[in-house]
Design brief:
By secondary structure, the chain is α/β, with parallel strands linked by helices. It folds into 2 domains: 183 residues, Spore Coat Polysaccharide Biosynthesis Protein SpsA, Chain A (Alpha-Beta Complex), CATH 3.90.550.10; 67 residues. It is 47% helix and 14% strand. It has an 8-stranded mixed sheet, sandwiched between helices. Helix 2 links the parallel strand 2 and strand 3. It binds uridine-5'-diphosphate and magnesium ion. The site of uridine-5'-diphosphate has 16 residues, from strand 1 and helix 3. Uridine-5'-diphosphate binds next to strand 1 and helix 3.
Amino acid sequence: MKKTLVSIVIPVFDEAENVGLLHEEIIAAIKDRAEEYEIIFVDDGSADDSLAVLKKIRAGDPRVKIIHLRKNFGQSAAISAGFAYCRGEVVITMDADLQNDPADIPLLVDRVREGFDIVNGWRRDRHDKWLTRRVPSFFGNKLISWITGVKLHDYGCTLRGFRSDVVKNLKLYGEMHRYIPAIASRMGIRSTEVAVNHRSRQFGRSKYGLSRTFRVVLDLISIKFLLAYSHRPLQVFGGAGLLMILTGVFSGMYLTYTKFVLNQGIANRPLLFFTLLMVFLGFQAISLGLLAEMLSRIYHEGLDKNEYSIRELIGFENENIDDRPRTLF
Ligand code: UDP
Ligand code: MG
């Protein structure tokens, strides 16, 4: 019988001291497993010697593959490069900094094989800074769960398991890897959460600061829009636009009545400016909505664009790789 293949996708940005240990821990975690494994490290333009270390690891373990990106494209882009080139029926994502524990991998694989499309890690006992990480993340998780309607304890945990068709149908933009469970909910997926181990960072440093909070919130706005209205943007803009025009028409009628029936001047009335503003803004909103409708048609046609650019693929020699040229933006 053919063995199930599991792909482990790991974005790496300046993690030279971590990747060796990480590889050892992964090997220890999977050595008694029935599945076959491929470990895909995506070097996201590291400036340290992560790449050299990765090549050394690969020399001793042919299951290791390396995608070397031309520059630092960010964690989401690195993960999507991994998604594009992985072949496993089960796909695991995790950080390279040893904060996620490879010992949890078998648990995630089992849950996916049981029939879940996404298995989300939940760092129940988190080892990160309190003020800059745990507090924003507490409120962040509540807010994201409420707005997207997909309730999770830990959106920030990158240790996750997927069925491959989920990751093959995803396009990640910006900082979107965090929102994969919410985005994928649109496909009607079955997901679950499992508590996973979390450790503090020993080597290297975190690539993010408090400013990430703002990007996370902005991404949330676009996620909400894309999830709820990307097929019908006119209903957002058009609704507001119609309401404004209607308000403008009523106040305009009242002004007309004042001028021609009551014979009072209206040039100095604030209501006149309000009326003009409402009518103008209303038409603007509706035309914006119509433009958005047209854009969304194009968007859903599926622009074949990548968010990353690859310098070198190592370890993919015997695979049919779809290397159609794609534009970056
Ligand atoms: N990472 C990446 N590209 C980036 C930033 C981060 O590939 O531009 C990787 C990083 O090497 C690590 C993971 O993404 O494997 C998570 O990053 P980090 O540990 O800095 O985030 P934190 O745990 O502090 O949220
Ligand atoms: Mg980390």
